[in-house]
Here is the input.
Amino acid sequence: MRRTFRADAARPRTSDEKHKIINRLRRVEGQVRGVEKMIEDDRYCVDVLIQLSAIQAALRKIGYSVLERHTKSCVAKAIEEGHGDEQINELLNVLKHFQ
Here is the structure.
């Protein structure tokens, strides 16, 4: 996994934050297994596509949750410490992946 130049600025997540993210990821994992079974069972393509869309939406929601926390903690801290431009540029580059 690629480390960014500000990886040292990361603040540890709370137990509650970790728990929520992990639970959401496990739900997505279950959905993916369900789609795998749908493919094995030759289920109707539209039904598979609907499930794939739900998986994408769930992953997007998790991503935005992580993004929100990063913005409110890591980016805010960087701005307070006087190197906000670096964090903002990094954030803008990451946002390109969410479009």
